[in-house]
């Protein structure tokens, strides 16, 4: 065999050995994720991470990876704002969009844990400032917090929440739920009996937000700060809407699918529990780790082990538990949630028992393409059990 052939085979062997990189240092893993993928399996493997961001017009990307119940590394790429050219770093705030829901659910579960109301209590006996209108759909079964947070209550809104420009008049929660001006969405009403079918409902989560506020007698951002964010150490997170100026200095701008700035820097979401969290991947990783540790009985900073089980146990209809969506991938059971706000896309995922996970946040409406590739590359680097493994013969 010629020397050139031997050398070529040696180089190829080294390249094939790059995956998995479980024992490598974070810098080596990050480098492998950023590089073109070898061997080239399919799709976007021939592109670097920056080339993928450019291809899909995603100005900014921020990632945090969990390993062994700790943040193994966090890194950001690109710019937070195409107009100012400010760089993204790991403390840049992004809108979590619907990833706000499981964080908010943890606060409601803590209220249940403290005896403020029951998880299976009739929601109209909890609400004070507004009531769900009478409906034939609740003849045999009342709507409860468990159902509202697992999208099984029968609320039928499918409009999502587009948010409001910072200069616009904001509606109250009752105005949103009744579809009254200045709300920009339809009213939230039941379209089927509870627990008959699963249908994603941000309106249902908004009802739960109002119930929690009625019980606690405080603004929602204050409730979340005291009950969840501070105990976990999520110092770069807030449910304040609109975002205060001192926080806005560190916030990303919303961009469209072509990577262009979208009018105002961001939209405002009075539907805070459903879409209003500003945060970082590192802070959300802390949140996922807290759930993982609580499930093992290793932390009670927010929830007991028993109450944490509610967050990862599907209610019996659809894929949702109280807050999280639950999914089996490969040989692993995972809990997570995605997010899609005006100009932002994000995703988070964590293993039920193995202490690993990932949070990815972008500031563009085309961010989903980049997030899928990043998650796949990281899963390969760590050899996560979500991957399809060849069956031994």
Task: Describe this entry's structure for a reader.
The longest helix has 16 residues, at 367-382. The strands form two sheets. This protein has a six-stranded antiparallel sheet, sandwiched between helices. The chain has 393 residues and is an alpha+beta fold. The protein contains 13 helices and eight strands. Residues 5-19 have low confidence and may be disordered.
Name the poorly predicted regions: 5-19
How many runs of DSSP E, i.e. beta strands?
Answer: 8
- Structural class based on helices, strands and sheet pairing: alpha+beta
The helix-strand sequence is HHHEEEHHHHHHHEHHEEEEH
Largest beta sheet: strand ordering: 2-1-8-7-6-5
Percentage of residues in helical conformation: 25-40%
Number of helices: 13
Taking the alpha carbons of the first and last residues, their distance comes to 32 Å
How would you sum up the major sheet? 6 strands, antiparallel
Radius of gyration based on Cα positions:
22 Å
**Average predicted confidence as pLDDT:** 93
In percent, how much strand structure appears in the residues? 5-15%
What best-fitting shape do the alpha-carbon axes yield? Answer: globular
């Amino acid at each position: 065999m010629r020397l050139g052939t031997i050398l070529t085979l040696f180089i190829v062997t080294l390249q094939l050995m790059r995956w998995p990189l479980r024992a490598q240092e974070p810098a080596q893993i990050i480098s492998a994720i950023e590089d073109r993928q070898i061997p080239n399996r399919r799709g976007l493997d021939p592109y670097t991470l920056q080339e993928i961001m450019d291809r899909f017009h995603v100005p900014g990307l921020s990632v945090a990876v969990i390993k062994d119940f700790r943040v193994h590394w966090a890194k950001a790429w690109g710019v937070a704002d195409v107009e100012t050219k400010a760089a993204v770093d790991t403390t840049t705030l992004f809108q979590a969009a619907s990833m706000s829901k499981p964080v908010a659910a943890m606060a409601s579960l803590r209220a249940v844990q403290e005896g403020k109301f029951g998880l299976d209590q009739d929601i109209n006996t909890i609400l004070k400032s507004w009531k769900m209108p009478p409906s034939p759909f609740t003849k045999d079964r009342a709507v409860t917090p468990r159902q509202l947070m697992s999208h099984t209550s029968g609320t039928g809104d499918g409009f999502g929440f587009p948010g409001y420009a910072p200069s616009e008049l904001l509606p109250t929660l009752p105005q949103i739920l009744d579809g009254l001006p200045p709300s920009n969405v339809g009213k939230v009403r039941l379209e089927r009996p509870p627990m008959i079918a699963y249908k994603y409902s941000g309106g249902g989560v908004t009802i739960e937000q109002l119930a929690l506020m009625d019980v606690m007698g405080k603004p929602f951002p204050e409730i979340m700060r005291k009950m969840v964010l501070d105990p976990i150490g999520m110092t770069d997170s807030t449910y304040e809407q609109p975002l205060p100026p001192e926080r806005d200095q560190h916030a990303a701008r919303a961009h469209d699918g072509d990577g262009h700035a979208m009018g105002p820097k961001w939209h405002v979401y009075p539907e805070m529990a459903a879409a209003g969290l500003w945060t970082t991947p590192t802070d959300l990783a802390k949140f996922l780790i807290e759930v993982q540790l609580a499930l093992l009985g290793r932390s009670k900073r927010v929830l007991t082990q028993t109450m944490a089980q509610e967050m990862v146990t599907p209610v019996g209809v659809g894929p949702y538990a109280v807050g999280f969506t639950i999914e089996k991938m490969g040989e692993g059971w995972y809990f997570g949630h995605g997010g899609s706000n005006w100009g932002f896309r994000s995703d988070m995922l964590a293993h039920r028992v193995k202490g690993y996970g990932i949070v990815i946040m972008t500031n563009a409406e085309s961010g989903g393409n980049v997030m899928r590739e990043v998650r796949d590359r990281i899963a390969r680097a760590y050899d996560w059990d979500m991957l399809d493994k060849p069956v031994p013969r």
